[in-house]
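Researcher: Structure prediction, please.
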Amino acid sequence: MIRSPLVIVGQETSDDVSNRLTSVLESESAQVFGHETPRIHTPLNDLPSRGHELIDFADQIIPGGFMPWQKWLAIQSLKIKPDGRYYHPLTVATVARQNGKSTYMLARIAMGLFHWDESLQVGSAHRLVTSLEQFRSLVAIIESHDDLAKQVKRIRWQHGAEEIETLSGNRFVIKAGGSAARGLSKPEVVHLDELREMKDLDSFAALRYTLMAAKNPQVNCFSNAGDSHSIVLNLLKERGMAASAGAIDDIGYFEWSSPTEVLSIENAAFANPGLGITIHPDNIKAVFNDPIEVVMTEVLCRWVQTISSVVGSAEWAECADMDVDLDPEKLTWLAIDCSPDRRFAALVGAQKLNDERFVVKLLHTWENSVQLDDRAIANDAAKYCRDYPIEFLLYSRRTSGAVAARLQPAGIPVFDMDGDYPQSCDEMLGAINSQRLRHRNQSELTTQILSAVQLRRGDGGWVMGRRASQSAICAAVATALVTHFATRPETEFDILVG
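Model: Predicted structure follows.
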């Protein structure tokens, strides 16, 4: 889970945010402005910057020019060393949606094409449609300015390989997804949008290493907040945090994010530097009732465990109870599950309490970077089967069949849950939302529960998708399996009428 300490806090300037405020805001809302400087950033320096050139160029091609936060970003991210090379060869700008990240990126691309003589720039986003929309916007900017249009040699509209080439030989091409590094020869600058969607470190590394022979390389990344699956963004955030704390790293990390989860305009102003300029406060207020995970990442620019989690974090937190625990004398159900890649496994136990509630507890986890040993897992699980009076050890034949096959000859009662898994998921979610499920607030169990993503099946059916969740959710699956038995009615008739 991503940590979010406050390391360096940006300072507000006293200048008026923009004279364009009156065209957007009503008078009663005019006192709420977005913050010009990021809440978290790597250490600043007094080196000269090429950002001033970019700001002047933006005044020519963008109506109204850059917003204050974009000017700040241009100055800080384009600092140059005495030898003329960029002080930050890698920059990350994390800002909430619709605040002008794409506008800034387009101006930076155009500057490299027409003024900074950058021979090859590459633009990439997780979704091709995003890259195409940005390409069309760039072409529109060029065609609306004769001085730029006269410098264009050709514009190539080949699906997934669009390209602009100038008379001087400078090129900008777009690539999408995992193919971004294919066929590239010595790019100078790479622009990555939607970085939170990049979940493959190998693809990022391959793209980054195409710059090794560049004269003055720079990778510019743009994103809003992500979740536990945002592998590349999370890694760069950690590097930025470490640099802020004194680690030697030339990354430039700049994060506009809300300091708390409070749903208020004042809190959102930290994550929305365009508030009061291009974003009306009412537009932000209108989305506060949307799913909380979406509001956190899209509006407040705060990290969450999973954006589309099956289980709500608030509902799960309400089920925490440190006064309950497994009783070694009571009837127990155990469940084991392994990840599809066989690198992770978890064992969960459950017992009924004295009312309709039941307690679940994560008993054991296994991890191996290559592949787990089913014999070692079976030996560990057998110990718990002896410690508690179990009715069954529950498992899925698809993921844990090899473990169960070793336990059954030892006299341990096992039960295949593949046929009951969809029902178990429904029962677990209902037990959580009604607070009948109780847990001891174990951090690893919480992480896996909140990482589980819903995978829909047929007409209304669903399960927690092991692969769809893109991280280990063995403990969540095992919790669902034990819930099936823990919620089983004591009598044949669960509901009496009359």
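Model: The chain has 16 helices and 17 strands.
Researcher: Thanks, that helps.
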